[in-house]
Amino acid sequence: MQDIEASLSIDDNTIRRYVKAFKEKGLKRYMQDGFVPYSGKLTEEE
Q: DSSP letters of 1-46?
């Protein structure tokens, strides 16, 4: 999880919240639920 936090500059609570919602809803409902992915600070190459 630390790699995800560092790469995307989001905290562990945010990651846990995303994972929980995904597990409860499944991919299709999760993506339809107004989810806006965080673009983070990755470059095009990363």
A: -HHHHHHHT--HHHHHHHHHHHHHHHHHHHHHTT-----TT--S--
Position 30 confidence tier, pLDDT thresholds 50, 70, 90: confident
Of 12, 30, 11, 34, which Cα lies nearest the Cα of 21? 30
Please say whether the beta carbons of 33 and 25 come within 8 A.
yes
Collapsing DSSP to helix, strand or coil, 18 comes out as: helix
Q: Are 10 and 38 within 8 A, CB to CB? A: yes
Among 6-15, 16-25, 29-38, the least confident range: 29-38
Determine the average pLDDT of the residues in 11-40. Answer: 84
